[in-house]
Design brief:
Blueprint: H1 2-32, H2 42-54, E1 61-62, H3 72-82, H4 94-107, H5 117-126, H6 133-149, H7 152-162, E2 164-166, E3 169-170, H8 172-180, H9 189-198, H10 202-207, H11 212-224
Parallel strand pairs: 1-3
Antiparallel strand pairs: 2-3
Helix pairs in contact: 1-6, 3-9, 5-6, 5-7, 9-11
């Protein structure tokens, strides 16, 4: 019995050690990205693998651009569409989470999410697309790491460069060129609002660029952009 107990606790300690080492690995990456730009993300790698299963020659459309070379219109549009309190919260929008919960409860299914830009970035950078309780817990830990080590401008800059905007399309620069044939710095208000409206379901909207729901949301975002506070 003593041998079994001893073995059990050794396994538990080994697992805890692995967990701590994994968290340190995540934290080291985040610290590195304070000054250096990520070349890819877990989500980008997942999408590329899926695309290459169908077409081995498939590739991503992606080009990093600095914060100053991304249109202020797009920054305001994304704040309005995805996280209106981004500059004020510390990673989690508890009011937004409560509203999303009430809306989902009323509908009887998940129709709204309360994820902030920081949470979305945490998920995109490190985590798989599978929905599991462990993933949500890890997302929360990574979100806290991001908020503790980076300022809001850096978090937003990385987010703008790694989010998905279509089938194999990642980041503001690739999206601007893919949909409008301009650079990210040249996006006008309506173009920016349309890109922001696409974020919840970008691959679908890439195929259905005049979808009524997206167009309606575009005009709502456009109307509210003047009040957006950006870092």
């Amino acid at each position: 019995m003593k041998i079994v107990k001893s073995l059990f606790w050794r396994v538990v300690l080994a697992l805890l050690l692995l967990l701590v080492l994994y968290q340190l690995w995540l934290f080291a990456h985040i610290c590195w990205w304070i000054k250096f730009n990520p070349a890819t993300s877990a989500f980008m790698e997942d999408r590329l693998e899926l695309m290459q299963d169908k077409n081995p020659k498939a590739g991503l459309k992606y080009k990093w651009v600095p914060y100053a070379k991304i249109s202020g219109n797009l920054k305001r549009a994304l704040i309005v569409a995805e996280d209106a309190r981004f500059v004020d919260h510390e990673g989690f929008d508890w009011e937004g989470i409560a509203k999303a919960y009430e809306k989902n409860l009323k509908k009887g299914k998940i129709v709204a999410g309360g994820s902030t830009i920081s949470q979305q970035l945490a998920k995109n950078l490190f985590l798989s697309t599978k929905r599991t309780p462990w993933r949500k817990a890890e997302e929360a830990v990574i979100t806290l790491m991001l908020e503790a080590t980076m300022d809001k401008r850096r978090i937003f800059e990385i987010y703008l460069n790694v989010i998905e905007w279509g089938n194999g399309v990642f980041g503001a620069e690739a999206a601007a060129r893919h949909y409008f044939g301009v650079s990210a710095s040249e996006l006008g208000p309506e173009q920016a609002a349309k890109l922001a409206a696409m974020v919840p379901n970008p691959r679908y909207y890439d195929r259905n660029r005049e979808a009524p729901g997206m167009l309606a949301k575009t005009f709502v975002i456009l109307d509210r952009m003047i009040d957006a506070e950006i870092p």
